[in-house]
Design brief:
The protein has one domain: Nucleoside Triphosphate Pyrophosphohydrolase. About 20% of the residues lie in helices and about 40% in strands. Strands 1, 2, 3, 4, 5, 6 and 7 form a 7-stranded mixed sheet that branches. It starts with 7 loop residues before the first helix and ends in an 8-residue tail after the last helix. One of its GO terms (molecular function) is hydrolase activity.
Length: about 150
């Protein structure tokens, strides 16, 4: 049972003080790996998988499906769980906060329905068969952990 959005003042306190549990979706398509160029911090300007925080009382699996729907307009099937990763950034999307810390859970997923309608966190959402340049080091860790994603060494 997801909760209501956290008010900005409280969100600032959370981001400033605790790691955020999140999921990242590595969406596979017939055309390649779906990535979007980040429009906000952290990782602004890099091609990165869509993702977001896990809400209270929401399982990671439920978060995967909610985020696929909210950020992409897609229904997805989980193909592979990549495990948990620690992502620490010097920047944050919240003014007055220096850095952001995620306990990120990577999932390889395949679209099973819906119509691709990305939200405003990514621009130029597209499928890659070759790695984007530059390749963000946290995306590299997901690729290295996967049994089925392309090896972009």
């Amino acid at each position: 049972m997801p909760t209501d959005p956290i008010p900005l003042r409280q969100w600032r306190t959370v981001v400033a003080n605790v790691p955020i549990v999140s999921v990242d979706l590595l969406v596979t398509t017939d055309d390649g790996l779906l990535l979007g160029k980040r429009t906000n911090e952290p990782a602004r300007g890099y091609y990165f998988p869509p993702g977001g925080r896990v809400e209270k009382f929401e399982t990671r699996t439920e978060a995967v499906h909610r985020i696929a729907d909210e950020e992409l307009g897609l229904d997805v099937e989980i193909i592979e769980s990549l495990g948990s990763f620690e992502h620490i950034y010097d920047t944050a999307d919240v003014s007055g906060v220096n850095g952001k810390h995620y306990l990120a859970n990577g999932f390889v997923v395949a679209a099973t329905g819906g119509r691709l309608q990305p939200d405003d966190q990514h621009e130029n959402l597209r499928a890659f068969v070759d790695p984007p340049t530059p390749l963000h080091h946290y995306l590299r860790t997901y690729l290295d952990a996967s049994e089925i994603l392309p090896d972009w060494s």
